[in-house]
């Protein structure tokens, strides 16, 4: 009896912590410092380099937008537009999202779109065309869909929101291997201030570039020359207030691209615009084995398709263990 009571108390404490603790991060990379550290490359990039980069980013345009692919009324009634970057071959992942947390798009104030780049594989192209025809929720960017082009994908996302969904309140970028506790997301959004210049998610402080050229995340000095990254929000899921989108987009076009899309957009670019990165503990990176973890989280990264279904059921399941939580009210 006593231990049940203790579990309850601990759970409530953790819940309160995860719900309300949106902490500002220290920012040694103030715009002044950023300039000193050379985080504002447009000022000192060689002309040719700058041109190359501009050419590169100008390809981050969405070349196809079909009927129904702009937000209704430019997003006027939309609380959150969720853009899910996805690779051409990830059709079953997209399907799993549509059938689980993507169901939240049945609400009038939520929209979900998948963002895919181009592929030379004609089978995949045909499949995507069919998928697009059926669900009307696919955006296609004007770039080849590769790991190296993920930053272009994020820039495309901004461009699309700026042009087709400018009146929505929030943009959530959420990968297709993320479980989203959609009801809790809505709860969090209702607590945020739209005018705040901030990007929300799991903040990484003082991370260092991977200089080992045998790893997938290798970053050569040519791409990023400093020993530490500015604070940034981890890529699988982050929230951007839509009023900041145009500014971010324009600024992206003036920066040298780094392939780590999260560090580029929410680190370098946001720092230069004096946009804060606010840490939300409920944006989770991996599975903890605490009881009721899923109910408390807003998103959990690296969740297999099969588990998306299980989790989606679980958040509505008021089993005994979680009775101390008020799940989302
Ligand atoms: C950028 O594109 C223009 C044409 O759009 C081209 O003339 C120029 O050579 C390109 N610059 C680089 C560095 O690729
Ligand atoms: C797509 O990108 C190509 C270059 O890769 C460019 O020639 C073309 O104009 C772009 N299309 C649109 C609609 O922006
Ligand atoms: C095209 O994609 C399909 C489905 O993923 C795959 O089975 C096929 O091998 C691919 N074809 C080529 C030429 O890569
Ligand atoms: C995308 O990535 C591929 C290979 O990583 C590269 O060849 C291509 O130029 C990149 N950019 C665009 C705009 O497709
Ligand atoms: C990786 O780095 C080592 C040492 O810096 C160098 O000798 C090697 O050629 C590099 N390999 C590649 C594929 O760039």
UniProtKB/TrEMBL annotation:
Lineage top rank: taxon: Eukaryota
One Gene Ontology molecular-function label: hexosyltransferase activity
EC number of this enzyme: 2.4.1.-
Sorted UniProt keywords: Glycoprotein, Glycosyltransferase, Golgi apparatus, Membrane, Signal-anchor, Transferase, Transmembrane, Transmembrane helix
Any Pfam family the entry gives: Galactosyl_T
Main EC class the enzyme belongs to: transferase
Location of the protein in the cell: Golgi apparatus membrane
Positions of transmembrane segments: 6-26
InterPro entries, per database record: Glyco_trans_31
GO BP annotation list: protein O-linked glycosylation
GO CC entries: Golgi membrane
Membrane-protein topology: Single-pass type II membrane protein
Record's protein name: Hexosyltransferase
Originating organism: Photinus pyralis (Common eastern firefly)
